[in-house]
Amino acid sequence: MRTAWPPSSVVAAQPTPSVVRRSSLVWQRRHCDRRRTEEKNVSEGASYAAAGVDIEAGDRAVELMKEWVSKATRPEVVGGLGGFAGLFDASALTKYRRPLLATSTDGIGTKVQIAQRMDKHDTIGFDLVGMVVDDLVVCGAEPLFMTDYICTGKVVPETIAQIVKGIAEACVEAGTALVGGETAEHPGLLEADEYDVAGAATGVVEADELIGAERVRAGDVVVAMASSGLHSNGYSLVRHVFFDRAKWALDREVPELGTTLGETLLTPTRVYAKHCLELIRALNKNDATPLHAMSHITGGGFAANLARVIPSELSVRIDRSTWTPAPIFGLVGELGSVELLELEKTLNMGAGMVAVLDRSAADAAIAELAARDIPAWVCGEVLATAGGAVTLEGSYAK
Hints:
The protein is α+β, with helices and mostly antiparallel strands.
């Protein structure tokens, strides 16, 4: 069953496939109970409910999420909930001389398992929105609208509503509209308490205001913006270290973290979009364009992502001593005996976004970000050395 807003109707469900099933007693009991119900219904005639799809639960989820979705809007959004498509008034783009549309699609990854185990679902929407819209803003694009997709083994209306609540709140923070979404119920494909979440967004940027590698110059500096924690990358490694190797529980109080392991792992991703757009507007004006490029530090780590906006005729040197990663990063390395380079290839190490800009604009950029409660600092420089490489040197500050 697929419930969308818009639309709030349904289409065909996934049939229960033959899959590798978990062998827990709890699952076997649930499966046997379901099978007995289905066998009973064979004589009465097949039904969607007997196949494991609850249409009424889907409709209930839509009702619960409406309050939050209605707040995540923009003046350009046309119509409300219930249509077959979300509508956005493109005449708003006529103010652009040559508008370029930018699009991004992403998910949260295995961080959703932390939310599921903690039965806390109202923050991972920030992870989704951050992963999607912050990939748009790095080229200077303003996120206009977003849609989401939630796939679950069983629709629990309250859970779905909490997920969408977080997505909607994060969209408000990012300045983008949530114009639609889908909740797909896939019995037999996912367990009843399992779900995955993905989303897509569209943004716009003036063609001659596009930022990126083409603007980067030797002598530029790199300004890092602090992450709120792990964000949404590296959780397969993180879960392996804490759960498989260290055997830690999510409710374990960890002195170094100042809270439980679970609360730290579920810390929402910082959404940079609106702040970065304001930074671009504050610096790149009156024919001056000192902010040259941005990079969203996600999968692949600091070096690999920054290298994506560095031209091949240049290179970058990053000084680790300019910042101290949050304790969670050190714990992953210590408990898992993970080498530093492996950590840096997997985790953001405390910097979730970076800007490459003219050295003369560094202080103004840091001040602008500080006014928005985003700690920032100069962490490196662009060198006139060919290769496009990003090298991290030194040791992190204690």
